[in-house]
Design brief:
Length: 152
């Protein structure tokens, strides 16, 4: 009976360790907001062009686990993408998620009408490589929109 109890306790400890390690891999809503605020502070301090270069550095300070910053013009052109450099420089206004939602249009509308907010859509998680539900924090700063999201 003691051996069975010991095995159960070891299993609980191992499972608990893996579970908390898995949770630690995902960014939080608070961290996404902080990343956007950090990018805006960087724009204020170093300028937009330098910040764009830093956001585009996949090993830089604007990428953390599954969190990454993106910067758009108010017309939907991607200026910076911390996880996918192929998006940079492209007009993304007409792309849809797997549910047929024009998610760039939607985020620009949030930026234009509210200045800041959250958007829910589906997108490929760069860590898991799977399409997952995502919540994106959006903030308009000057003529650009800075975003960072969390996968659910």
């Amino acid at each position: 009976m003691k051996k069975l109890y010991a095995y159960i306790m070891v299993g609980v400890l191992i499972f608990g360790h893996f579970d908390s390690a898995f949770c630690a891999e995902k960014g939080t809503s608070e961290e996404a907001i902080a990343m956007v605020k950090k990018a805006i502070a960087e724009i204020k301090q170093k300028g937009l062009e330098t910040t764009i270069e830093e956001v585009n550095d996949r090993n830089g300070k604007f990428v953390d686990r599954d969190l990454y910053v993106m910067i758009y013009t108010m017309t939907g052109k991607n200026l910076a993408h911390g996880a996918n450099p192929r998006m940079v420089g492209k007009d993304l206004i007409d792309i849809k998620d797997q549910n047929g939602v024009y998610f760039i249009r939607e985020r620009l509308e949030i930026a234009k009408t509210k200045g800041t907010g959250w958007q829910d859509y589906s997108f490929v998680n760069p860590v898991s490589k799977k399409i997952e539900p995502k919540s994106l924090y959006i903030e308009k700063y000057g003529d650009v929109v800075i975003t960072c999201g969390v996968y659910k």
